Amino acid sequence: MAWILLLLAGILETGWAIGLKYTEGFTRLVPSLATIACMVASIGLLGLALRDLPVGTAYAIWTGIGTLGAVTLGIVLFGDPATPLRLACIGLIMAGLIGLKLVG
Fold it and tell me: Taking Cα atoms as reference points, which of 65, 60, 57 lies closest to residue 15?
């Protein structure tokens, strides 16, 4: 169950990272409220997952999921570059997350 909570926390971290772009410096009410809700829920779920998972592993996976999600959505939604080297680096992050899951 802790791994599921951690996955959801990471997905919500992606949500608030992307949401920050839409808040326009927290000047837009609805995107700002949605972003803050994602922040609170993400941290809350991370805290619940930490009951059963090592902090280093959980935190690294949480931030890694958020990183992968933000980079992917940045490419899809905002036209961020998707160069081969950048994609290879994303692959390395994913390999690290899989490795942490397998040993953690």
Answer: 65
- Per-residue pLDDT of 36-76, as tens digits, reads 999 999 999 999 999 999 999 999 999 999 999 999 999 99
pTM value?
0.89
48-72 as b/e: b if 16+ CB within 10 A: bbbeebeeebbebbbebbbbbbbbe
Domain assignments of the chain as residue spans, ordered by start? 2-103
Report which of 79, 78, 12 is spatially closest to residue 43, judged by C-alpha positions: 12
In angstroms, the CA 12 to CA 32 distance is 14
| CA dist., res. 47 & res. 59, Å (int) | 10
Element (H, E) at 92: helix 84-103
Distances (CA, A) of 70 to 17, 21, 76: 6, 11, 10
